[in-house]
Structures are given as C-alpha cells and as structure tokens.
Design a protein that fits this description.
Largest sheet: none
Strand content: under 5%
Number of domains: 1
Radius of gyration: 18 Å
Number of helices: 7
Helix content: 55-70%
Distance between the termini: 46 Å
Length: 127
C-alpha cells in the first residue's frame, strides 16, 4: 500500500520543479509548499497535484479501503521525467512552457465543468 501514492508524489514533485517558485525564485520545493505566501502563488496544477497526493495519503488510513487497497500500484509514468528534473538534465524554459500548457488545460477543463454544472442547474425544473 505504500507504493500506491508514488505516481501522485512524483507528479507533485515534477510540477513543483517546473513552477516559477523553484525555477525562477530558486526556492526549495518544500519551502514553496510550507510558506503561505509562496503557496498562494503556486500554479493551479500544482495545487491540484498536492490535493490528489494528500487525498491518496489520507486514503491509506481509510478503513473502508483496507481490503481492496488505496489505489493501483505505481505505473512508473513519471519516472523518466522525475529523474531528469532531479539530476538537472532539463531546459528551464521548456519546463516552464510545459507547465503553462498543462495549467491552461486544467483551467479550461474546470471552466467547462462549471459551465456544464450551471447548465444543469438552469435546466432542472424548480420543485
């Protein structure tokens, strides 16, 4: 069960490494997460990855998931990217661009979901 949050942890680490807080301001990822001022400036994608990681960690203690497990084991999806970022084998401008694209996609998905929700609320008859 300990390896079930491995993908979420690596996704969060990659997002933090790509964030302006680490790349431009040269803060540590830990400082970006613990300092309230820096945490407010994190990209939306990093906040979403942090939330997913924390939900996964909390799920490890959820007794309802005790028999079937918290989540599938790690897929290794982020291993290569994580290794490149950890060893310094990356182009900072390219990583910032990737984060911007991912962040924009997340924002668009949220806007679409909110629009669908509003359409449902407007289409439902008042009881």
């Amino acid at each position: 069960m300990g390896a079930s949050c491995k993908d979420q942890k690596k996704a969060l680490a990659i997002c933090l490494q790509r964030s302006p807080c680490v790349l431009l301001d040269r803060n540590t990822p830990k400082k970006c997460l613990t300092d309230p001022v820096l945490k407010r400036e994190l990209p939306e994608l990093c906040v979403a990855n942090l939330k997913a990681f924390m939900e996964c960690k909390n799920g490890m203690f959820d007794m309802r998931k005790r028999m079937r497990g918290n989540a599938p084991l790690s897929t290794g999806k982020y291993d290569e990217t994580y290794d490149n970022l950890s060893t310094g084998n990356y182009n900072a401008e390219e990583e910032m661009r990737k984060l911007d694209v991912l962040n924009r996609n997340l924002s668009k998905q949220r806007q679409l979901a909110e629009a669908e929700e509003r359409a449902k609320m407007g289409a439902e008859p008042a009881a």
